[in-house]
Design goal:
By secondary structure, this protein is α+β, with helices and mostly antiparallel strands. It is about 25% helix and about 30% strand. One of its GO terms (molecular function) is hydrolase activity, hydrolyzing O-glycosyl compounds.
């Protein structure tokens, strides 16, 4: 299940990789690089941003089912349950103890951001980049839907050349 969900994130993972490669910026960034004015972020060494929108806070202790995290701004917690249900909850800025069951995947999306999700696939060449759904800030997703534009520009390529396009 969790591996299938990882494949659903490939449009985001690949697009953020392309952005960082084309702009010569960092793909993974410590929180202190994103929030330099937040002194609490200077102390955090085990949470990081993946691209512009996604924050991860891995559980590093063996047999642990939770951990303390710090959110430098209000964020949306995304929790993939063992039934493949996606639960999104707004979490306020600050310190929190979060439960991380072993059979769930948990990460955070910045407010004002949306992430593309592909339909489940077992290989990258089977991912449908044209029919994506979105998770994250519901207002951003709804506004984009009303305007007829996607809430997130996705980079795709043919898998063989260095050519790519934005959709």
């Amino acid at each position: 299940r969790l591996i299938r969900f990882r494949y659903r994130l490939i449009p985001y993972i690949y697009t953020e990789y392309m952005k960082s490669a084309l702009k010569n910026t960092m793909y993974f960034r410590p929180l202190s690089f994103v929030y330099p004015e937040d002194m609490d972020c200077l102390e955090i060494e085990d949470q990081l941003m993946v691209g512009e929108s996604l924050m991860v806070a891995p559980v590093l202790e063996p047999n642990s089912t939770g951990r303390n995290i710090y959110l430098p701004e209000d964020m949306i917690e995304v929790r993939l349950t063992n039934t493949e249900e996606i639960i999104q909850t707004e979490i306020p800025k600050g310190r929190h103890y979060i439960k991380f069951p072993l059979d769930e995947l948990v990460f955070y999306i910045r407010k004002g951001h949306a992430l593309p999700l592909a339909k489940p696939a077992m290989r990258t060449d089977l991912i449908d980049f044209e029919n994506l759904s979105y998770i994250g800030d519901k207002e951003v997703i709804q506004k984009a839907g009303k305007e007829g534009i996607p809430p997130y520009k996705v980079y795709i390529d043919d898998g063989f050349t260095t050519e790519y396009k934005e959709i």
